[in-house]
Amino acid sequence: MDFDAAREIMVDSQIRPNDVTDAPIVSAFLRTPREAFVPNSRKSVAYSELEIVTSPGRALWIARDTAKLIKLAGIKPSDIVLVIGAGAGYEAALISHLSETVIALEETTELVDAMSARFASLNLDRAVAVEGRIDAGLPDQAPFDVVYVCGMVETVPEAWTAQLADGGRLVAVVTEREGLGRGTVFTKAGDSVAARDGFDACPPRFAQFDRKRSFVF
Hints:
- This protein is of the alpha/beta class.
- The protein has six helices and nine strands.
- 27% of the residues lie in helices and 29% in strands.
- A hairpin with a 2-residue loop joins strand 7 (164-177) and strand 8.
- The chain is globular, with a radius of gyration of 16 Å.
- It starts with a helix and ends in a 16-residue tail after the last strand.
């Protein structure tokens, strides 16, 4: 299979037509081999318009949703970025082409070691994988200019927004109603955080951030 050709087709059919034409973002997608971040059995469909499970509870989104959330983040070359629930590391790899440094946070040694090996094999020296609880973020290395969340959430932990620098942005797809979310950017200014909606999406969710359901008679 010609992965280079498939990558170009993905960009031309899934990303550019969905209002993501920024040259740095397009270049990041063209430079990042998506097939390197999926299981061997799924490499033939790496560039198809579908979500691909990479490990339990982790998946690559469709390219359109990833591209639009990255655009919403407004990442600058000087930014330090934290990726929450980085999974296989694809989003962190993309962001490494747009930022100064990207830290990919995951909860198991297995996922962190696999990401580190991928980053090394692709010569992504601006990306580093770190182990820790994703609900806690990475307070010892805060503040961050951008926090990027790799799963749809119902709630955004205060720990994440607390780790933003002044003017920093947190981007996530937040559940609006059952089965549907909105790409949202949270911007920190002083002690306050303001939210702005961006686009409709329904990527795989992080169930651990569902709201607690109360019992009703």
